[in-house]
Amino acid sequence: MLRGLKLSDGMRWGEVATPHQVQDAAAILDDDPTSPRLHFICRPRGGSKTSDLAAVALTMLLTGRLGPGELAYGFATDKDQARLLVDAMRRIASATGLGPGLVDFGLHSAESPQHGGRIEIQAADAHGAFGLLPSLLIVDELAAWPPVPTHTTTWTAILSSQPKRNCRLVLATSAGSPSHWSHKVLQHAEESPRWRVSSMPGPVPWLSSEALDEQRKLLTPSQFARLHLNVWTEPEERLATSEDVDAAATLDGPVEPLPGRRYVAGLDLGLKRDRSALVVGHLEHPDAVGRPPGAWWSLPKDPFVGDRPPVLVVDLVKHWVPGRLSAVDLGDVEATLLEAWRVFNRPKVAADPWQSAQMSQRLRAAGVAVEDHVFSEGSNSRRASALFALLRDRRLLIPRDGDRPGLETELRRVKLVEKANGAVRVDHDRDGHDDLVQAMGIVAVTLLDRASGGAAVGSAVWSSGRDLGVAAGREWLESARRVGSDGLLRELERAGVVERVSGVPVSVGVLAGGHSRRR
Q1: Do the domains at 13-225 and 242-450 have one common CATH topology?
Q2: Which among 68, 26, 34, 2 has a CA at the least distance from the CA of 170?
Q3: Which residue ranges in the chain fall short of pLDDT 70?
């Protein structure tokens, strides 16, 4: 039954499954009472975990392994991620020609009218996992579950439900951090005879070398090792190496504004304990790297001309340090910002509205275009990833520090912190600061997100330097829609990255080697 199911491309599962996939499926479906009922499957990103689990679950429904009144549950970090399992089952059923009489689908469920079995989807951040009497438990991407009480409690409920009916428990994930609690689950599974552990080495054979090279450039080394090589590794602790900062800190000081260049000012406003930071920057043609600022006049004004992504040039850096008993003089910050606005061709100003609401109102009244840049998990990750990619690819030019520590010093000290769900952020040591780096990050993502035309797809999306993930990808698209980047959305649609249902963008794929690999 399983081998005969068709995938979305029309091929049968048995025709394309590798020996590793076949062995995992056979072990899960094995009815021998002496065989392990607990399965830990670890595969690289793109290793067909969700598709294979969907095919196995569909087989159990169709063959009556889930009989009358028997329930299976699928868990993931949130409802949207968990629903991917049912969506994959629906696609396989449609491609195979299985009508409603054989399998009925709901938004978060699938059931067999003939045999009476049913699969329901649950979110790890929701209540209700206790009290279940399951016949099958599927847990997706456990290593990406955040280490918070809601998720760890859900895992406890799942694990404690398994012995009630000695049900099958199938845990499928990509490698994560050894400090994540899921690694302890793996270590126990490797030592226990009640578990079957299957680990597929990466990268997956169907990923092209060009796509793999592109991913290696865009991800941090530890992210690449975990996602594509399936190696459990700790995340990096520093945003940049000394060599990265040396290559970036090549400007002697503030750069004189150039006519026709499009600038952005990023403001990270602190009040009593934090410093305030202002950074003005623009995107320049990649040939600007290694040239003195005066030589930029001969370069194209459009930084996206050609195949190479643009360079971020930091033209002006200012910061204000609060005193021991006094706060930052916001009047001085506002006056400096207005002067920079007049000098640098009246740029857009991007600032966190939480601290700068009143100043933003006054600036807008003065004719300054102020855009809110909300500090959230998604925007934190975009700033960190964009800066990481710019530094590593030698596409960042900043002024050297002068008489006092500034942006260059911060870059040498800030950390790149990665969360369990793959999101990253810039942070600082207890005795350090990251205000200037955050302001530069605001400039970077604002400039890249404002880019338009086909070149912006390759440069703006990938220059942000990350595998977006579902949540960050949706936030990025919504940001593009809010600023009216319809041209960019059309390019993404033509590339197959975005699909529309009733005119609404609904899915995000991955550009790889000039092609779209949709997930």
Answers
A1: no
A2: 26
A3: 126-128, 236-237, 271-273, 324-325, 420-422, 431, 451-519
User: Cα-atom radius of gyration of the chain, to the nearest Å?
Assistant: 26
* Separation CA 31–CA 136 (nearest Å): 13
Yes or no: say if 273 and 314 are a contact pair by the CB < 8 Å rule.
Answer: no
Best CA proximity match to 14, nearest among 87, 96, 131, 81:
96
- Tell me: the pLDDT tens digits for 472-501? 444 445 544 444 444 455 545 544 445 444
Q: What is the pLDDT of residues 436-486, one digit of tens each?
A: 999 999 999 999 887 543 333 333 333 333 333 344 444 445 544 444 444
CA distance 421 to 419: 5
The distance of Cα 398 from the centroid of its chain, to the nearest Å, equals: 27
Report yes or no: 168 and 39 within 8 Å, Cβ to Cβ.
yes
Q: Which residues pair with 88 in a beta bridge?
A: none
Using the structure block, give the residue that is written with the tokens 């429904």.
61
Q: Is 238 left (phi over 0), alpha (psi -120 to 50) or beta?
A: beta
CA distance 414 to 277: 15
List, in sequence order, every beta strand (DSSP E) within 165-273.
168-173, 195-199, 249-251, 263-268
Structure tokens at 301: 């004004």
Q: Which CATH architecture has domain 242-450?
A: 2-Layer Sandwich (3.30)
pLDDT tens track for 44-73: 998 999 999 999 999 999 999 888 988 999
According to DSSP, the β-strands at 348-351 and 370-372 are parallel
- Cα(306)–Cα(322) distance, rounded to whole angstroms? 45
d(CA 453, CA 458): 10
Contact (Cβ atoms closer than 8 angstroms) between residue 122 and residue 134:
no
Helices (H) and strands (E) in the chain, counts: 18, 21
DSSP for 237-267? S-S--HHHHHHHEEE-SPPPP-TT--EEEEE
* Domain extents in the chain: 13-225, 242-450, 454-519
Tokens of 121: 């989807």
Say if CB 9 and CB 155 are below 8 A apart. no
Separation CA 317–CA 407 (nearest Å): 7
Q: How far apart are CA 255 and CA 399, in angstroms?
A: 8
- Say how far apart CA 348 and CA 358 lie, in whole Å: 17
Q: Which of 78, 173, 182, 171 is nearest to 125 (CA)?
A: 78
Residue type at 217 in one-letter notation: K
Question: Domain 13-225 - what CATH class?
Answer: alpha beta
Asked whether the beta carbons of 461 and 428 are under 8 A apart, the reply is: no
Residue entry with tokens 């990406």: 144
Map tokens 């998720």 to a residue: 151
CB within 8 Å of 251: residues ≥ 6 apart: 293, 313, 314, 397, 398, 399, 400
